Structure formats: structure tokens, C-alpha cells
Amino acid sequence: MEKYTGKTVFNGIAIGRILYYAKEQEPIVRKRIEDTEVELLRYEQAKETAVKQLRELYEKALPEVGEVNAQIFEVHSMLLEDEDYNESVTNMIRSQKVNAEYAVTKAGEHFAEMFSNMDDAYFRGRAADMKDISERVTRILLGRENTGEMGTEPVIVAAEDLAPSETVKMDKSKLLGFVTRFGSINSHTAILARTMSIPALIGIEIKKEWDKKQAIIDGKEGIFYVDPDEATLLEYRKKKEKEEERKRLYQTLKGKETVTRSGKKVRLYANIGNVADLATVLLNDAEGIGLFRSEFLYLESKDYPTEEEQFQVYKRVAETMAGKKVIIRTLDIGADKQADYFGLEKEENPAMGFRAIRICLARPEIFKTQLRALFRASAYGTISIMYPMITSLEEVRQIRRLSMEARQELEAAGITVGQVEEGIMIETPAAALISDQLAKEVDFFSIGTNDLTQYTLAIDRQNPSLDEFYNAHHEAVLRMIHMVAQNAHAAGIWVGICGELGADMELTETFLEMGIDELSVSPGYILPIRKIILDAK
Amino acid sequence: MVTFQYTIKDAVGIHARPAGALVQEAKKYPASIMMKTEKGNADVKKLLAIMSLGIKQGEEITIEVSGEGEEAAATAIQEFLKANL
To answer: Which of B38, B5, B41, B43 has the alpha carbon at shortest distance from B22?
Structure first.
């Protein structure tokens, strides 16, 4: 048994035989041709086939990976039909009397080199696209279209690298998973693998002699086994079976509307803490993102993240969710989440200390950078902003003044800002008790039950010796949630729950009775909770 | 001839997807549509030509439209830029 570790692209288990996938590397030879008209016709026909294939790839990719990701194939077909590219090919065939394969390869190399020499990383990356489209046409010209044919048995594909078009083209029913040596976890191929939930690892030294050998991908741990022993195989078969069983049950609930038997609709959103979680959001069919914790931007950084850095992240989330609601919570550090560069002082009682919105209001320059990034990103999807740790009306008014300023500054600079709902978290007893007043100032409430419970019961969740006093279903907390819901509805705004209690399946029906409009839970809970709601009265 | 200026707002600049859509928009009009920038000029009906300029956020481009239906074409291109780039 051989064991290798790589980087996880998508977790999940795959067990099967390896198919070593090699790109045909036979060099394209330059040949002299006599009849240039025939050669031009060959090129035109091959190009037409290529455009048709790309159209099919786009159609195939669309339901699997979504519009934004699928558009790469549309761009490829537009590049193929570009006048300059075509002139470059046809001129070479005419003036140098060369075969179409050679002309296409040279034209591809020429434009790839042009992009490779550009200053900007984005444009340099387009060199790969020029090679990909030229290789497609030469494959058609050479009748090599069947490369990568996967046979009848499902396989684990092992390759040096995989192009997005290669990944999409593979027959998903025969593709158990893949391992590659090159590629990054944010490459197009990796994103496609995640959205299609294919177990995959990168950064593994691929060996040709692995072909047809038995292997296991453990996507969760990032381990790749070649020739696993019986015990390992048995262990993974069991794990895989459990995984499958759960999946089967919940798969049937995908795409279904979350609505009770009496017709009450509940919005079921996901909580996420990083861009990497987006794949699981789509995979579990969340109807939106109810809590996007923006802290990771600050915690994973050595200095304050810039407006541009933040904007790129928020934009990507908004675009990936393609119009579905994305609720982003502003900076919530302090207490147990610390970043050195903030220079926060050590506190006696951090849970009740200088944290979240208190830092933002004391240091408005940090806050406004984030607000500007959020408003800019709002032009690319449906973004809502949520403010944490609110205790007073005055805080909310101060926040709204700052957010109004940020919006107006952007609009004055001619930057498009979308429609943005602004809401607050109800996670202190103070906010719950004055929720009737707060409801008039904001667009929505989201109840953060973790802190609300800790503050209401005066029980520190980090202290295990208090566990026997802790009751997650304490009447005081439930009454508060009920009161917040009533006050929200009286003021005509919606109310959701984004704390751990939201995923507590014993309480789902109670929340429905209270009239909670939205539940935001970890992606893995979406389908189980949808099941409960579908079965509820 | 109709001329106007536009400053790119998109964070990645004139990247592949909107560039492709821009070309498709431009091809709807018979008029000649040119993009002039500090880095060089490109025919707006040619995708690779536009992309080869590598226009980034904050850079100013000048669009020159001339020929049949130039007014309508200029308006359409301006609207497109505002909405997508």
C-alpha cells in the first residue's frame, strides 16, 4: 500500500481503479499542402465542430456548475470566432501552404505568448485559454476526439493537470474522483469539481504505472492510497456506504421549496465562514446565505484587509450565489476572535468587552472600508448587511449614518450600488427587549442565539463546569425569541435565526409556530431541516 | 463621428466575459466602433484585440463611432459599458 497526501479540492470518498489520463503529446508536424482551398475548408469545418462542442459543453455545464462558471465555454467559442485569430490561421495556410493543424497550433501559440507577456495576472492566465481552444481544433482535425474516453468501468482519474473543458467533458457517472499534480484549489477545474461534488485532491506526484491499480481518495483528510490493503479498503467501504446512505435520503429534497404542509414558506439559508464554503452551500441547495462571517478576512490577514481585497471576496460570493440573497455580517472580532494588528487590550471579561460593532463605531475608518467594499459588491448580486452586538437605538442610528455616508461617497464617484437591505443581529437581552423600537430603524432581524443564550442565562459557554446549569431550551430564551418575532412582524420586517439553535431540530416546529421567516444553518443541516419543515403542519 | 469617454469600473478590468458580450453588442451595428486608449487602439468588434490591451479598472477609454447609425450605436455601447464594465 502506498500513501500520499495532497490538498483537498472536494472532500468525499472515492474508491476504484485508476485511469492514468495523458494528453496526447505527439507533436504537430508541419506539412506542405498543395490545395490550400481544401485545407481552408478543413479548418472551417473543424472550427465549426469545435464551436458546436463548446456549445454542448456550455449546456452540459450550466445545470452542473451555474451560469458564471459555465460562461468560460462561451468565451472559448467567441475566441475561436475572433477575426484576428482566424486571419492568423487562414493567412498561414494560404501564404505558407501549411496544413491546418500546424497553422492552428502556431496561431494558438502566438496569442498565448501575447497574453503570457502581459503585466496583469488575470490576462496572463488567458494564455491557457488560447492553448485550450487551439488544441480542441487540432484534436478535431486529427480525429483524436476520443482521448480521455473512459471505458465502461467507473474510475479515479490521475493526471498531471486537467483543463476545465476536460473536467466537464468527463462522464460523471464514470468519474469517481480525480487526483492531479498541478492546479490550485481555486482553479476553474477545482471550482467545477467542487460544484459537481467530485472527490478530488491536487499536489500529488502522479505515476504512470498506477494505471489500472486500485486506489482510495480520502478527500476529508487529503490522503490518496494506491493499492490499499484489505483492512483499509474495508474501513473506507464502510465510510463510503454511510456517506451514500445519507446523501440518498437528502438528495431527494434538493430543489424542493421549503414549505410546511399548511403552506407556510420558510427561507432556509446557510451560515458560512469562508469563500471555500460556497461549494457546500450550492451542494446542499441553500436558498441563500443567512450569515456570511466576514471575520476570516481579518483573521487570516497580517494587516487590515483593503477595500479592494474585501470587495473581490464579497463580489465573488454575490456572483456565485447568482441573485440569491447573501447576508454579510460586518466585522465581529474581539472576545475569542483576535487579530494582533488591531492592538486590542487584554480584557477581564472579553465576552462583554470591546468587540464587534463597538470596535467599528470606535474606529469608523475600519468600518467604512468594509461598508464601501460591501456596497460596491452589491452591484453584482443581492447583498444584505447585518450588524452584530447591538444594544441600543443610538448605535443603530450611528451605524445608519455611516453606511449612508459610505453609499453616498460611492455614488458621487459614479460607482454603481445595488439595493441593499440593512439589518441587525438580536443577540443581547437589551436588543431583544427594545426590539419594538429597533424594528422601526432596520430592514430585518436575525437572532444570534449563541450569545443571546449566554447573556440571558449569564452562563459562559467556554466553561465546561457550568454545563449542568445550561439549558439550551430555557423558557427565557424562547420567550425572548417569540417577543422579537412579534415585534418584527408588528413593524413589517422579517425575522430569522442564525445561531446554533436555528439548526436544533427539536425546536424547528416551535420556531414555525412563532412565525420565524428564515432559518440560517450550517450547510450540512439544510436538507435535514427542510425535511422537518416539509413534514410539519 | 460620435465620441465619448468612459472610465472602467470593473475590478478585473475588461476581462473575457464582458469583453465577449461587448463584441456581440458592437456587432449588432454596421457603424465602425473603435476603442482608443493610452495602451493602443482596438476594433470593438474584435475580442482578442480588446483583450490584448489589458485595460484595468480606473483606466479611461475613448470610444469613436462612425458610419451608418452612429448615434444609436454610440448610445448602445455607452449603456453597455455603464451596465457591465
So the answer is: B43
